[in-house]
Amino acid sequence: GSPMRGSGSRPFPPDFVWGSATASYQVEGAVNEDGRGKTIWDTFSHTPGKVHNGDTGDVADDSYHRYPEDIALMKEYGLKGCRFSVAWSRIFPEGRGKPNQKGVDHYKKLVDALLAAGVQPFCTLYHWDLPQALQDKGGWQNKDTAQALADYAGYMAGQLSDRVPQFMTTNEIDTFVYVAYDQAVHAPGIKLSRGELAQVCHHAVLGHGLSVQAIRAHAKPGTRVGLAEDYHACTPLVDTPEGIAAARIAMREENASIMNAIMTGKYTDLYLKTLGADAPKFTDAEMKTINSPLDFVGMNCYTATYIRPAQDERGYAVVPMAKSHPHAVSTWLFVAPEALYWGPKLSSEVWGIKTMYITENGCSGADTVMPDGQIYDTDRVAYLRNYLQNLQRGISEGVPVKGYFLWSLLDNFEWAEGYGQRFGITYVDYQTQKRTPKQSALWYKALIARNAL
Ligand code: GBH
User: Fold this and answer.
1) Contacts of 19 by beta carbon, 8 Å cutoff, 6+ apart
2) Is 211 exposed, middle or buried (0-12, 13-18, 19+ CB in 10 A)?
3) Which residues, judged by CB distance below 6 Å to any ligand atom, belong to the binding site of ligand 1?
4) PANTHER family, per this entry (predicted)?
């Protein structure tokens, strides 16, 4: 029979990067300091009715000042990597023009502190905090924003690449396009028509491609460039050969407007046909830019898109989640641990990806401090353990995932949900800014220490 598989029997590769992820507007606070310009999230969060409870990122975790304390926590947990993002408007307060030295210096200090703690920095250049001045000129509806992103990305990579070895252009184009410009739940909160939306999405992927080129032009040779995207982790609901084949097709088609376009330089026939007259306007040269070669792909993976075979033109169908499918406190966060097996496996196969990172995975809870001062987040521990078992399975079969960044180091500003949903492995008391490791932090630390599940 098979041996008992106890703790430590499922190893990860020796150089696996265990990390955590955060984003500027969600943790920094200090919104009026050192010349930072206004962003669309300042505007949005200060507009009544847009964010749960009227919360804003004005203070957040105050990490702009408390980053040494946060890095001490990373060191305490044994983290090998830190994914953080740069606030564009701290560098270019108006989105473009003359750089703000105080902003640049902040990130140099942050990175130096990470390096001193033995933590590898992974820098995201754009995690949704678009300078308001660019929104005033149309935001992502204006194609010039794509070039503005690239100019900023190239400049910042040039400033940091002597100490930062890897950059991500963008975080979740999917979210900052569709949730912002279709559902209007995120800043700038505009509802567009189908055709306008497809054009916004095209500008965003173009911004990514132009940024890849700008980073390569300005960064130290050998700097690695990728992106972090929450593309659909198409997962066969029934893992027969037919189910798996359907999930492969779905991986392309469900991600046609972003990841498949970036990885292949083409919008699929089905995507263009489905949109018809609403298809985006694009040139061959733009598609080539969008397809600029990457050194790695970062996958943000929280849940699965379940797929079944279908006898139609698509060859697959998306299986909707059952009403009773378990989810975290976030109602979109359906628990589907096998997404972390099938997502990286099928996407790396379909797009020929050689190096991947899981740039986000995590679980929201309604954590509370118990009378003994502890936070017993059993839900988060169970979620993480199950997802990571699936990731380990894939890696042991050869799926090229080189690291994992848990979302998040700290409870933080959860966008439209404000501070009501907690994703941290560290509890933050927003009255005092006191940080307390939750049980999940102790669990993650133990996992990292033995590098095995
Ligand atoms: C990531 O988004 C983000 O990168 C990160 O900033 C965020 O804090 C973290 O995950 C946790 O949410 O309002 O019902 O339309 C994850 C993907 C896509 C999930 C948008 C929430 C909105 C759901 N997100 N989605 S809904």
Assistant:
1) 79, 80, 81, 82, 83, 119, 120, 122, 403, 404, 405, 406
2) buried
3) 23, 26, 171-172, 175, 179, 183, 185, 230, 300, 302, 332, 360, 407, 414, 423
4) GLYCOSYL HYDROLASE, LP05116P
Active site residue 397: no
From 28, 172, 229, 253, active-site residue = 172
Mutate to test the pocket of ligand 1, among 84, 175, 231, 411 (most ligand atoms within 8 A of CB): 175
* pLDDT tens digits for range 349-389: 999 999 999 999 999 999 999 999 999 999 999 999 999 99
For Cα atoms 370, 441, 171, give the angle at the middle one, nearest 5 degrees.
Answer: 115
Residue 432, classified by CB atoms within 10 Å of its CB into exposed (0-12), middle (13-18) or buried (19+), is exposed
Whose Cα sits closest to atom 19 in ligand 1? 332
- Measured distance CA(87)–CA(28) in Å, rounded: 9
pLDDT beyond 60 at 335: yes
Name the helix (H) or strand (E) containing 309: strand 305-309
The protein residue whose alpha carbon is closest to atom 26 in ligand 1 is 332
- Pairing mode, if any, of strands 305-309 and 316-318? antiparallel
| Residue 286 a catalytic site member | no
